[in-house]
Amino acid sequence: MSLNTTAVRIKVTLKEVKPEVTRRLVVPVTLRLDRLHLTLQAAFGWTNSHLFEFLAGDGRWGIPDPDGDFDPEPIDARRARLVDIVRETGTKTIHYLYDFGDGWYHVIKLEKWFDDASTEELPLLLEATGRCPPEDVGGPSGYAEYLDALGDPSHPEHGHMQLWGPEQFDPNTIDRKALEAAVNTLTESWKPRRRVTRLK
Fold it and tell me: Which of 34, 46, 91, 140 is the most buried (most CB within 10 A)?
């Protein structure tokens, strides 16, 4: 990574889930980690209802608990950027954990660096494969059981799972436009505001 590097293409894969759920995005290297979290939530279709952490090397970045239940506390994601993780750890792979109960681990691979690229239209969703699981389904093992029950009308939990989860859930079908729109909304909201000089 050179001093001129401004953006990076990342591939993010949800671990231990079949069918595969992946996203490719381009993000600024200076993106704050709390905003990277929001970008991943939007790109995957999660609902941002749970805690999160980024993990690389021996470091953990998240939102410190005001009650101090975690020891040691993670580094504040609101005060760290993606480039900080890369500089501190030298890693090309970062792990992102969403929902400490269900344990949704994502692997973020830093695939390609861009020098002197404009970051005004970033983050940008490039590719999306697979639908993310429903929230609170019980992690990868619970999701596998959910899909088994959903796909087998003779399964004792079939009717319950149809009612519990999203209507007509298909793990292979995603609403690409909705995911792009969610990421684009963040991109627009994070653009620097231009100051307007009023003449007196």
Answer: 46
